[in-house]
Structure formats: C-alpha cells, structure tokens
C-alpha cells in the first residue's frame, strides 16, 4: 500500500509532537472529569475510561481545531462529549444481546467486569454526559445549538447502523450503509464539530461555512469508512496484541465484512479511500486551510493497514 499521505505531514518534527501534546491534553481533561465525578457510575466509568483506547475521534476534533484556529483547548469539552458517545456505543455493542464480547482492549468488557444492568445503564448515561459537556462549552448559543443538533443526528445514525448490523448485511451495498451509519456518522461529526468551532472563532467565516460543511462531513465519512475497513482487517488478521481478543469478533458472530467477501477488493477499497482522503486534504490546503496535524493523525490511522498488508495478500 503506497504511503500516499506521508507528504501531507509537515517535514518539521513538531507535528508529531503537537499531536502527542493534544492527546496528553485530552487525557488530562478526561482524568480531571473522572476525579471530580460524584456518581453511582463512578467505578464503571473509571474502569471504562482508564482501560486504554486509541481516542482517535476526540483527537481528530482537537487536531483539526488546532490546525484551523491554532488552539485546541476550547474544544476539549466537545472532544470529550464525542468520546462519551463512542464509549457508550462500545459498552452496548459488547452486550450479550448484541456482539456478546467478553474482552475489549485485552480486559473484560463492562458487562463481564460488573454486570449486564450496569452496562446497559452506563451506555444510557454516557450520552447524557456528552450533552451536558456540550452545554458547558464556551461557544456562542448558535454554535452550541448547531453542535447539539449535529451530535443528536450522528448518534441517531450510529444507533440505526447498529440495528442494521445486528439484522445482518446481505450485500456489499448493505454493508456500506451499515458502515456509513455505524462508523461514518461519528467521524463525520468530528469534522463537522471542528468546522463549527472554527466558524465560532472566525477561522472559517459564517458566510463560508455552509459551503465548507458538506466538504467536512464528506471528509469525515470517508475517513470513517476507511477506519472501519482497517478495523475489520485488524480484527480478522491481527494478533491478540493488536485486537485485545483471542478470536475475531466478526468471525465469532458470523458477521460479514469486506474482507470476508473479497480480500483483494477490500484492500483496493482502502487504497481508493486513502487516495480520496489525500485529495480532500489537499483541497483544504488549496483554499488556505492547512491541516498538517490532522494529516499526521490520518497517516497513523492508515499505518495499521500497512502493517498487515503483506499478511492479507498472503492468504
């Protein structure tokens, strides 16, 4: 797989350092919230948020806001809200009624570590924490209202995608629809939220934002589709160190993925999405929106596919 996005990261060494600083800033914000939490969900929330996770989605929000405005700190409540939605979906996804997974990130899932009713209720509680975090952000009422609408739409689409996934995809077209909803919705939200924050700061004018909005949403959805394809690739071909599980979740649940349908076509699809994302990054650069930190994060996302390409092609 050619490293098409490598040139999009600045040759200056501070880009990876900036991304690492953003991640540390996010970790501190989450830990601060945990330490201030006074709730019956304290033990399960501590367990959930302190047991790893790539935090790609909130890092995307912060990276893009950093690129567009020069400062990501004001976006921390929004990034945290998005992580809460993502974590809620995972807690529910692991339940016996859905994927019935006993391990996530190498440790017992919430319903195994605690019990099923805690997992159900924690998954219900986290979206409310997300919207509370949104309401506490320091943006204009217009921006908060638009963010709230975007978050609501994305989580609704995620739930619809989860339902379609449980019913089972019977064709590549149906599988695309599942992935666009279940994964693409939150990735689109990452870009839309960052764009809304940039328009609040004036980095993107309110007049121009309606033009940029569909471009940002498309960018995020394409990255989400690529991320899901790479995740399916890792789930099927990665070892326990990569997956945190002994057996592929999709295999255990007899779920179809692009890689179970046609491995060659699935690899070609990841390459095509990568090319499209490359072009979308460059189109932002062409209008003066330099997104070097975001491009570095995207490069890291695709590096997971690079590490397994030879293994997939050898099957």
Rounded average pLDDT = 88
**Helix vs. strand class:** mainly alpha
Radius of gyration of CA atoms, rounded to a whole number = 19 Å
What percentage of the residues does DSSP assign to strands (E)? Answer: under 5%
Termini distance?
A: 16 Å
Low-confidence stretches: 1-11
Gross geometry: globular
CATH superfamily: Farnesyl Diphosphate Synthase
CATH architecture: Orthogonal Bundle
Estimate percent helicity. Answer: over 70%
State the strand order across the main sheet: 1-2
Number of strands: 2
Please report the first level of CATH classification, the CATH class: Mainly Alpha
- Which sheet architecture does the biggest sheet show? 2 strands, antiparallel
The tally of structural domains comes to 1
Given the structure, what is the number of helices?
A: 16
Q: Report the order of strands and helices.
A: HHHHEEHHHHHHHHHHHH
The CATH topology is given as Farnesyl Diphosphate Synthase
Structure description:
α1 crosses α4, α4 packs antiparallel against α6 and α9 runs antiparallel to α10. The chain has a two-stranded antiparallel sheet with strand order 1-2. It has a single domain, classed as Farnesyl Diphosphate Synthase (Orthogonal Bundle). A hairpin with a 2-residue loop joins β1 and β2. It is globular, with a radius of gyration of 19 Å. It is built from 16 helices and 2 strands. It has 315 residues and is mainly α. The N terminus is likely disordered. The chain starts with 13 loop residues before the first helix and ends with a helix.
């Amino acid at each position: 797989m050619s490293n098409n996005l490598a040139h999009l990261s600045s040759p200056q060494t501070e880009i990876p350092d900036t991304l690492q600083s953003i991640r540390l800033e996010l970790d501190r914000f989450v830990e601060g919230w945990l330490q201030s939490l006074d709730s019956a969900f304290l033990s399960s929330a501590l367990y959930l948020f302190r047991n790893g996770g790539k935090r790609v989605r909130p890092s995307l929000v912060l990276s893009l806001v950093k690129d567009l405005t020069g400062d990501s700190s004001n976006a921390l409540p929004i990034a945290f809200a998005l992580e809460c939605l993502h974590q809620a979906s995972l807690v529910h996804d692991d339940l016996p009624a859905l994927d019935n997974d006993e391990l996530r990130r190498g440790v017992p899932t919430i319903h195994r570590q605690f019990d099923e009713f805690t997992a159900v209720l924690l998954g219900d509680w986290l979206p409310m924490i997300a919207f509370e975090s949104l309401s506490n952000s320091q943006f204009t009422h217009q921006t908060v209202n638009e963010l709230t609408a975007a978050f609501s739409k994305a989580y609704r689409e995620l739930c619809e995608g989860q339902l379609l996934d449980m019913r089972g995809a019977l064709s590549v077209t149906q599988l695309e629809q599942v992935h666009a909803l279940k994964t693409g919705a939150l990735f689109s939200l990452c870009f839309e939220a960052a764009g809304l924050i940039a328009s609040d700061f004036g980095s993107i004018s309110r007049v121009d934002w309606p033009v940029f909005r569909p471009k940002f949403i498309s960018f995020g959805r394409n990255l989400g589709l690529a991320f899901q394809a790479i995740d399916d690739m890792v789930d099927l071909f990665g070892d326990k160190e990569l997956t945190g599980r002994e057996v592929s979740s999709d295999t255990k649940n007899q779920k179809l993925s692009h890689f179970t349908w046609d491995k060659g076509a699935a690899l070609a699809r990841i390459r095509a999405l990568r090319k499209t994302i490359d072009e979308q990054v460059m189109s932002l650069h062409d209008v003066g929106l330099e997104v070097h930190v975001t491009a570095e994060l995207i490069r890291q996302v695709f590096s997971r596919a690079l590490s397994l390409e030879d293994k997939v092609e050898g099957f």
